[in-house]
Amino acid sequence: MSIGWLGACCPPGGNGVAHPRRSTDVLQLPLGSAPHDMLRLHRGEIIETASGRPFSLEVLAVALQSADIVLVGEQHDHREHHAIQGRIISALAARGPSLVVGLEMLQRDDDEARALLARYTEREIDEATFAKKLRFKKRWGLRFDVYAPVFRAARAHRLRVFGLNAPRAVVRSVARVGLHNLTTLQRERLPSRIDLHVAPHRRLFAAMLGGGHHHHLASAKLDRYYGAQCVWDASMAEAAIALARPRSKFHSRVVVIAGGGHVYYDLGIALRIRKRRPALKVASIALVSVAHRHGRDVSRGLATYIIGTAPAPAHKKK
Predict the structure, then answer these.
(1) Domain for residue 314, yes or no?
(2) In terms of CB atoms within 10 Å, which end of the chain has fewer, N or C?
(3) Which residues contact 313 (CB under 8 A, 6 or more apart)?
């Protein structure tokens, strides 16, 4: 689940180094592996943040071969982001077997969706039948065609696709009454360990809510909302680890498709994967919208790689 469920959208998405400055811009926070450094990002660029070097998609795919889990952070309603995700999946699938795709958009315990995904990627049903039966908009809130490039890439390479997220009803209960007030049955559907005390992650969460502009929300309510965000991150981390099967001879590489708020600064899903399975190698990719032709500044700590895209088209007023 992304911050969008709280009524805030993922922010639009910066090769030279710019001077750091205090900011509540989610993409310019002093967090992550290089908290006091900025990179200038332009549309169409893929940048390795550690070195500042530009990569092609082919070079990126080669670099990602050493990763057990690749996190790709998106703006949910941005069609170009999903087209790029589809190309990343295809490039990785072409370079090695045992690739699995995990989606934030679907629940981990949704047996109906899991069966439909298997039939679709094995080409037992066509796209029209799959889209109709999946009822993606009801499950996620956006039309199937927005995410079609991701599903098509998985089908083209016969990749297994799974939902990652926690049951929405339980997460809503966390937001309403708090993690510690769930019923026993609700708590059993969530990971046993959910860390609510990661200060940098809490700062990122506050920035996604608009920095200091959420003061109208009571502290207790903010705590519950933050708990719900942590439930999403912990649940997706646990599911991704299970798909990777790190202790099995059938080890798989996993591509996780999720909202940027779960990927930025390696504080959401990545942090929880590393706490549970430190030996797993995690790489992150942030898809960043760049509105200005001169580019935009982005924190070097945002992700392992950043990709500049055009801004999402403005929504038409109803």
Answers:
(1) no
(2) C
(3) none
Give pairs for 291-295: CB < 8 Å, separation 24+: 291/12, 294/42, 295/14, 295/40, 295/41, 295/42, 295/43
* CA separation for the pair 238, 101 (Å, rounded): 14
Report yes or no on 297 lying in a domain: yes
pLDDT surpassing 60 at residue 306: yes
pLDDT digits 0-9 by tens, 33-75:
776 799 999 999 999 999 999 999 999 999 999 999 999 999 9
User: Does a structural domain hold residue 318?
Assistant: no
Directed axis angle between helix 199-208 and helix 219-244, to 10°? 110
Q: What is the CATH number of the domain that holds 111?
A: 3.40.50.11550
DSSP 102-155: EEEEEETT-HHHHHHHHHHHTTSS-HHHHHHHHTHHHHHSS-HHHHHHHHHHHH
pTM for the full model? 0.89
